Amino acid sequence: MPHIYWSTTMKKHLFLGLAFVAVLFAFVSCEMKSVMSPSIQQASEIIRTDTNGVCDTILLSDSLHVGDTVQFGLLLNGYYDYLRTFTVSADEANVAVSLTWNDEFKEALSQESDPEHGKLIFVPEKVYGCYTALQYIPLRPGTFRIDMTLISAAEAPYASQQKYFFIAVR
Questions:
Q1: DSSP 8-state assignment for residue 107
Q2: What residues contact 70, with CB distance under 8 A and at least 6 apart?
Q3: How many CA atoms within 13 Å lie on the side-chain side of 145?
Q4: Is the pLDDT of residue 111 over 90?
């Protein structure tokens, strides 16, 4: 029967290996739930309608005129967690913002929702993803910021995603 000789070096390597495995187990969570931040994805096509009713597609960075109506689709995704709220805001004196919402899906929104002013509050545990469209109308010339915030039921710090963009108005 062969006899294994354990040198001091082999004992040190074995000890370090076992210590590494023990530390690895200490830092690995046994919770199997996946957590992911929600996402806001913008449609590639942005539609502008000018004050004369002429409709065209533009880039987000294109200049606008006072009174132009701009609209583009948004895909909101909570992945593993349901969505709580989605808000779009801008300085109301300079830009009017709103969200479109199909009345067929009205039961997914809480009574406090106000899509006409950029605020969707979802019924808990009902909506994990949805499609809406952002519409904004610049009211004055200048450069203005539009903010979007999506909050899901994910654990902090993964519960929200915030995005913003600037519009240039002539």
A1: G
A2: 46, 47, 48, 58, 64, 135, 136, 137, 167
A3: 5
A4: yes
